[in-house]
Amino acid sequence: MSAVVAEALCAGYGAGPVVDAVDLVVEPGEVVAVLGANGAGKSTLLLALAGVLSPMSGRSRIVGSSETAGLAARARAGMSLITEERSVFQRLTVADNLRLGRGRAERALEIFPELVEHQHRRAGHLSGGQQQMLALGRALAGMPRVLLADELSLGLAPKLVRRLLAEVRAAAQRGTAVVLVEQQAARALSVADRAIVLRGGRCVMDGRSSELRDRLSEIEAMYLSGGTTAAHDEEDDVGAPR
C-alpha cells in the first residue's frame, strides 16, 4: 500500500485553491521532493497531506488513516510533520523537547550527537541549525511511517544541509516514506528518488531525480525569479544563536 496518496488534490485558504489538481504517490522507503519558488504551493500541499488543511476537492491519504483524518489522527497513524517555522518548543530545553516526541530521546541523540552537550539549554537559545537537528532528530526517533518536511535547508550552511538530508535518506532506507519540500533543487535531487515541480499550484514537471538533475537549468528557469537560484546555498553561522 502506498504511504502517501494525493489525487486531483485542491487545497487553499480562501475562495480559490493554492494547490490545484495535484497528484502524488509516495511509497514506503521513497523520498519525493516537491520543488518550486516561494508561493508555488509547496507548503500548502504539505499541510493538506498532513491533514492541517481539508481538501477543497480531490483527496489525500496517509497510510493507516482515512481520507478525512485530521492532523492528530494522521500523526497517530505514524506521520511526522516538520514545518518551515522550526518545529521546536522554544522555551523548553532540548531534553524536554525530546521527551515530548514519540520515540526515545536517546535515539534522537544517537542520530544527532551534536545535541548531547546542549540537552539542558532552551531550544530557543540554539542556532537555527541545531534547532533543525532537534526537530528532525525528535521526528526520526519515533521511526515514522511518513515524514513530511518543509524547507529543512532554509538559511543553513551547506555542510549542515548535507548532514540533515543524509539522515532523511537514511530514514527512507529504513522504510519511511518522505515528502521533502525544498527550494534548493540540486540539494533535494541529490537525496530524492523522484521529484515534482510546482508552479502556480500546479504540477508542471515530474520524474526520476536522475532525469531531473540533467534538467536542473530548465527547472530553475521555470520557477525561479529575482536572480536567486535553487542551487544557491545560504550561509548561516551554525554555532550562533538565531
Structure report:
The chain has 242 residues and is of the alpha/beta class. Helix content is 32%, strand content 23%. The chain contains nine helices and nine strands. It has helices at 42-50, 71-76, 94-99, 105-111, 128-141, 158-173, 185-191, 209-213, 216-223; strands spanning 4-11, 19-26, 31-35, 57-62, 79-82, 146-150, 177-182, 194-199, 202-208. The strands form two sheets. Strands 5-6-7-3-8-9 form a six-stranded mixed beta sheet, sandwiched between helices. A three-stranded antiparallel beta sheet has the order 2-1-4. A hairpin with a 7-residue loop joins strand 1 and strand 2. Helix 5 packs parallel to helix 6 (158-173). Residues 226-242 have low confidence and may be disordered.
What topology emerges from the helices and strands here?
Blueprint: E1 4-11, E2 19-26, E3 31-35, H1 42-50, E4 57-62, H2 71-76, E5 79-82, H3 94-99, H4 105-111, H5 128-141, E6 146-150, H6 158-173, E7 177-182, H7 185-191, E8 194-199, E9 202-208, H8 209-213, H9 216-223
Parallel strand pairs: 3-7, 3-8, 5-6, 6-7
Antiparallel strand pairs: 1-2, 1-4, 8-9
Helix pairs in contact: 4-5, 5-6
